[in-house]
Amino acid sequence: MNPFTRFWNWIKSLPVHIILIGLCIIWLVPSLGLLVTSFRPVQDINETGWWTVFAKPKGFEEFKTYCASCHGEDGTAIATADLTDPDLVQNYRRSFNLLSSLERDIDGQPHMGDISVPDEQTAATIAAYMRRISGIEARPKFTLSNYIDAFVGYRGNKSYQQDCADGTQAVDLHCDVRDLTNPRGMGRAFLNSLFVSIPSTILPILFAAFAAYAFSWMDFKGRQWMFALLVGLQVVPLQMTLIPISRLYAQVGLNGTFLGIWLFHTGFGLPYAIYLMRNFMGSLPREIFESAYLDGASHWTAFYRLAIPLSVPAIASLAIFQFLWIWNDLLVALVFLGGQHPVLTYQIGNMVTSLGSGWHLLTAAAFISMALPMLVFLFLQRYFVRGLLAGSVKG
Ligand code: HEC
């Protein structure tokens, strides 16, 4: 290929690349922001945006304009009045005290020289800044406390670790391993979500594999009709069945149990799972099955020696989609499990109070619930793509 065509091809594919990069950025920037925010201390989250993590702390600008000319940018220039010394700053915790010091004369000269004394608001900001640089109120740039608080379900004004250290633990927390599975925490909700999702993924796929084999390789009356009916069942909206099923569950005592939600997800997963698996198994080469039958293989042998191993790609992509859909499901979990066994989606909603406080916990909670889907996506990417194509290529 000569350089010119190569250059021309590069130019032609440029718009596509730019669009793809743009899409990635649109997706990545907010996720990155959420991730960074989830590791910041509450006070920082409330004061500044996540993109300022590497900027100077709040108050630096004010300090620079008013005080740096004498005290230096780091506050240590005057040896007798080192503003990073906690013992000195201790006396100026309140902006009122600081202001009166700034208005007082030093050796017959105004403290601030030619510079005008800052207003109260600015003085308060500067006082806070001094508390920070002197270490009285030092806080780390990043902290795990949002994650810890969300994980154990801490709802207080300080932090779980702080409260436990002070011995003033919040209600229903014990400050030991028991807290890891506190019913109000994300840790417990994570386990509950796993406990809902795994059987609800395996069961429908297992049954669908049997059904798909029967529909593809066994001859029985009404096969086409039954398959058509199953395909048609896919359009039944889930909401329509909430009332009848929950009444039925109430009669047999399945409301609020894991078994109930497994059965529900299995029922709703089956039509599509059967449809997809049937299309996949039906397109496997007929000859291998026929020669297996000629050699005397039973249907059971053909099923687990031929059909299942050959259908692994379909099973994998189906499993991924079913798992993700159940992991992110709120409606079914809310109706059939509710607060009895809170799952992640349910618990995330509980993190924020109606007054809007506690949303620093939400950032960590969101990441806890995103973690598994992201891992699934990253490690099983090729099945993911195949799953997206499965409907279009076959069928
Ligand atoms: C014109 C120079 C100048 C400016 C501007 C200035 N200071 Fe000072 N500051 C001084 C000097 C000089 C001292 C006295 C050092 C000493 O006592 O020996 C002092 C002392 C202090 C002290 C210690 C007082 C004590 O307890 O002895 C504090 C606190 C202080 N400054 C805070 C500030 C803050 C905050 C700002 C900015 C809003 C500021 N200063 C701006 C020159 C300045």
From TrEMBL:
Domain Cytochrome c per the UniProt entry, residue ranges: 54-134
Topology class, membrane: Multi-pass membrane protein
Domain ABC transmembrane type-1: 190-380
UniProt-listed InterPro entries: Cyt_c-like_dom, Cyt_c-like_dom_sf, MetI-like, MetI-like_sf
TM region(s), chain numbering: 14-36, 189-213, 225-245, 257-277, 302-323, 330-349, 361-380
Any one GO CC term of the record: plasma membrane
Record localization: Cell membrane
Gene Ontology BP term (one): transmembrane transport
GO terms, molecular function: electron transfer activity; heme binding; metal ion binding
Entry-linked SUPFAM superfamilies: Cytochrome c, MetI-like
Cited CDD domains: TM_PBP2
Keywords: Cell membrane, Heme, Iron, Membrane, Metal-binding, Transmembrane, Transmembrane helix, Transport
Subcellular location, principal: membrane
Family classification: Belongs to the binding-protein-dependent transport system permease family.
Protein name in UniProt: Alpha-glucoside transport system permease protein
